[in-house]
Amino acid sequence: MTADHRTSPPRRSDATRTAILAAARERFAADGYERATIRAIAKDARIDPSMVMRYFGSKEGLFAAAVALDLRLPDLARVEREEVGRALVGHFLDLWEENEELRAVLRVGVTNQAGAERMQGIFREQLLPVARQVCPDPEQVPTRAALCAAQVLGMALTRYVLRLPAATALSREELVAWLGPTVQRYLTAPHP
What we know:
The chain is mainly alpha-helical. The chain has 11 helices and no strands. 74% of the residues lie in helices and 0% in strands.
């Protein structure tokens, strides 16, 4: 069998699923979890609403599938210890600038249990391991990671969701300069 015969064209069900997920991401980002409807998502995907339910079972199931996020956090072993805070803040700023799914997750996370659970999973699966790389006391990793999350999510909420003028006026460099040392302290400073 040649390589051409082993590669089959995408099935219609794959295309339908992809269209639903794309429409859901856009709708959740634009409207938030509460206002986004299965009917509106189906209309955006140009399919019947029953198909959304068939593929995902519920609005919560659709949301969880649509926001399976990989934060692509940097390997902190490659970052100078004194620059960890700045590196993480810069990384998160880059993510927020380019990723509408993060804004959707944040909006939903503050208004809905399914969204909060999704945020908790991202924290547990992705941020805790990064904090473990630099935290001086393994028992403090969850606390220190939570403090970092509070800084980064607070910045994201004020800059990208609420769009507070003072927060949106800050340049990337200013945000890194202000928040980097705080995140650094949370991760690497001795226990207060």
